[in-house]
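note to self — DONT lose this again. spent like an hour looking for the file last time. sequence + predicted structure for the chain T wanted, 114 res
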Amino acid sequence: MAAISTALPAFFPEQNSTLACTTTSGSTNVVLGTVGDTLLLRNEGPSTAFLAFGNSGVTATAGGVVNASSDGSFPLLAGEISTVRVDNAGSGLNVAGITAAGTATVRISRGSGV
């Protein structure tokens, strides 16, 4: 019987962006390019960032307790690294972010793999 490869392809970054999230300025937004179907997200902290993905009108909603179902947008804990698969339809993707308290800096790389 032949072995089945379970290796994941390496991540190839195509574009890098930075999203500065705060509570005082409301939901902030960054536009990503069109290349790649994977986002590599890294929250440099110090607070949890809540992220939403969509068109130019996308808005993130902050939550309180990170594991509650009513927390709002996708939570990215301080120090966390996560990957998200996105549509690779050719139009620019927008990522919005906000914090419930304090600030967070989210580094975003769009590319292929993982």
